Every structure is written in structure tokens, then in C-alpha cells.
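re: ur question from yesterday

yeah so i grabbed the chain u mentioned. its 448 aa long if i counted rite. heres the sequnce exactly as i have it in my notes:
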Amino acid sequence: MQGKLNEIDIRSILQLIELGQRTGELFVEAYPSQPSGMGNLGMVYVQDVRASKALAEQYWFVFFLNGQIVYAADRATSLSRLSDYLRRYRAEASLSHLVVPSIATTNAPEYGYLWALLENHTLTPAQGRSIIQSMVHETLFDLLSLHQGSFIFELGPALSPQLTTLEITPLLAKIMTQVQEWKQFHPHIQSPDQCPAIADPTTLQASLSKRTLATLDRYADGKTSIRQIARYLNRDSLTVARAIYPYVQKGMIQLVYTVAQENVRENALKNEAAIGFKAVRSKDFGLQQETRNLRVVCIDDGVAVRETVEHILRQHGYEATAIGNPLNALSLVFQLKPDLILCDIAMPELDGYEICAMLRTSTAFRQIPIVMLTGKDGFIDRVKAKMVGATDYLTKPFGESELLMLVERYIGVGDQHSDSAYQLPANTSETSLEMADGDTNSAASAAI
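ran it thru and got these C-alpha cells back, copy pasting raw so excuse formatting
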């Protein structure tokens, strides 16, 4: 079952899944024209360019077992949401020390981390169920507010193991009521992703209790969104919005969009830590430039594609290395430590989806941009790419300008004044790193 949301709405899709007692997963991708939580057809409230950037790529996954919801994710590879929820229990620091099991690492890494926290007793089952229920509620609120996008539902094995299952009908009734109430906040509050900031502290202090004022002082910093505040306080976004609405109306609290810029900076710093850089090449962040050139690895079994990509990127100041044997690729990329990986989908022995999924299990490659190269331009291929943690995809054949625009988008402009050819380390070659059958997973896990 697949289609567009102007043909069938999310509520009807969920009801059909429940009625048919289906097991599988629903993928929904938004068109970048409407903020989540708006719920008002025909009206788009965008304060500035930063807001539209935040809406550029929104997608969700919902997992079902016999017509009931097991889990729902807002982004397949993001752990920021789980970290926010863990703050309720002062356990967010535990994420950095986890050895994640194989559970759901391919299509739901957040779920795998949650189970790891349960297994090492950082969380109790009751706390885990509370987090999942909040995640499902938050995701459905976004989906039921959405009117433009595409969806696909695929039958398949259930996400396993299950900590809880939630009936769809009661959830729909409750959340639809909240979506309708949210509309009353327009135009003063437009999206749960807006960040409150105190604009008139003197007047606000005279209007609030000390406890409420202390909460606002802590969170209304112009950087923490309504949605994040709700997660920290174990509330829903509507409750937080309802509480601040009178003060937003009176101008005591202002709402701004800064989440997109903060996420860009956060991801850049994560990339820096993951690959051992001293700085990120970006004058926008005011950081010191790195001494070595930006490095790209292209994994493709086609000789013409490899040679073309290497030639184009080296001509424009990137260090480019092409790898033709997918079995060798996993070991080589851990040595090369690239800033970006281009990976063909259709390859023998080990396809691009499998390579991407294996790399995403490593902490070193959890945030590195991975772009899938495909000869197909289909929605299902895009869904599969995102399910395994791919950052983007590029359809073959592609031209020089398309390749450069994509690479510059994720890692910046290459150094035009240097020799960008990169040689493999001494005593290292593709043939010397060839692995026997069954060693591919061990090579990836050894680098975690």
C-alpha cells in the first residue's frame, strides 16, 4: 500500500492497518511546505529561511504488530530524541557508553539503544514503556497534522522484541482532539519546533509563581524547543504550548526557529569527534580549518563510475578514493576515515544497503554522510536507503555539477590549490584486505 496524502489521510491509513490486523512498517515523508503540528490547510507560517530548512527533510516510521503500534520513530538514525527522553531519568549520559545489540540496528537504531538501556538496567521496563508511549504519541501528533507527503506501508516481520503494543483507535481519538486544539494557537504558536525565549522578564516575573518562573528561566532560552521542553518535563507539546500561550500573546515570551542551525552545528561537531579532526572546514561556525583536504570514498563495482568520480572530485580539490570490491570496502573505509561516502546500491556479494547498515553500527560512522548511488529513481529505493541510515541518494547517470553540488552540500568546497590524489597507507591495498566469507561483520564490529 503506497500513495500520496492528498489521496488518503494518515488517519484512514492507520485505521486500515488496524482493521486488517497488519504487521509491518509505515514510512511517511513530508513535502517541505508545512511545519509539523500546524494542521491548517492552505496556510504556511514560516518566520525565516531557518524555519524552511528545518522542514526540508521530515520523515517518520511506524511499526505495527497485528494492527497495533509497537514503536514510532521521527528519524531513523537520530538519537537526540531518545537523549531528550532520558533526561527525565538523568540517564542521557549512558548513551555514549552503550554497546548496542543487533536489535533493530538497521531500520530502528533508536529502538536498539532503548533495549540496550533496559538490558543493562539503566531503565526499568516501566520507564521504557513510558518513553515508547511518548514517542508514539509525539509521532502520531506530527502525522495527523500532516496533509502533504507520500507514504508506503510494507508487510513484514514485526519489530522484535516488543516492550509494549498500543491500540490505534484510542490513540487516534485522543490525538485528533489535540491536533484540533493546537490550531487555536495560530498564528502565535506555529510549530512544536519553535523555541521560547523570554522577551519581557520584568513583567513576566510579576505574572508568574516562583516555581513556574524557575522552569521558564531554565528552558526558555531561545534554543530549546517546545517539543524538547515537553520531553524533559514528561508532558506533551500541547500542554507546554497551552501553558505559554497567554504570555506569547502578550509579547512576554517570543518564539524563534533556531533548531535547524543548532542541529547543523551539532552534527558538524559530532563528525569532528568521530573522525578525529581538530576542526571542521566551515567559516560559518568560526572554527579553525583542518590541515588535510576533505576526503571522499566511492564504493562502486563499475569501473567507469569509479574513474569518473575520482577524476571530478580530485579536479575540485577533494581527496578521492574509489573502491571496486564491496567486501574490501568496510575495512578500507575504517583506515581512510572519509568525510563522505558514496556507495552504489546494486553490487554483487554485498549490496549498498548492507554496507550502509554495517557502517551505521559503528560509532565512527554514525554521523558521516553516506550517499547511495542508484540507477533507479523510485520511492521504494529511497525508503530502503533511509531505513538503513543513508543520508541521501544520487541517481545514475549523474553529471559533474550534480555530484559537486551534493558533495559541497554535506562537507563543503574542496581545496582548489592542492594535489588531491590520496594514496592508501603503506602495505595496504584492496587485494591484501580481501576478507573470507563471514568476516565482513567482524571487521565492522571490531572498529566499534
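noticed a couple things. The longest strand covers residues 24-30. also Residues 43 and 221 are 28 Å apart (CA to CA).
anyway ttyl
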